[in-house]
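Board notes (copied after class):
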Amino acid sequence: MKALLTSIVLLCLGACASQQPTYARNLEGMQEELQSLSKQINASIGYPRCDSFTDCGVIATGYAPCGGPNRYKAYSKLLPTATNLRNLALRRVRLERDYNAAANLRGVCQIEIQPSANCRAGVCTKVER
């Protein structure tokens, strides 16, 4: 009886340890969610109007396979949904990080310097450094 109980416990532990997160089993689902988040981010940014450079900011929207942000978008801090936009961007960055790990992606490791934002002709734009 003791041997049977030990076997059951070991089987359960082995099954639990071998289970992968849902996203690891479903890379296609992760890709779809990444695309959906990108669309939501773009829709939230819309036409980023500004009066001065202080009305503008940049957010990371991507994650490189070797680590760190690799894409940025300019947005208007005047947006009533700026907090929601930052949350969407953070979700997308974290999901892309998880996707890269689950898909075992590798890439050229180069540091992506965060751009600044400026107000040009009433529109927030990225300024690469």
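Comment from the instructor: DSSP finds four helices and four strands in the chain. The two ends are 69 Å apart (CA to CA).
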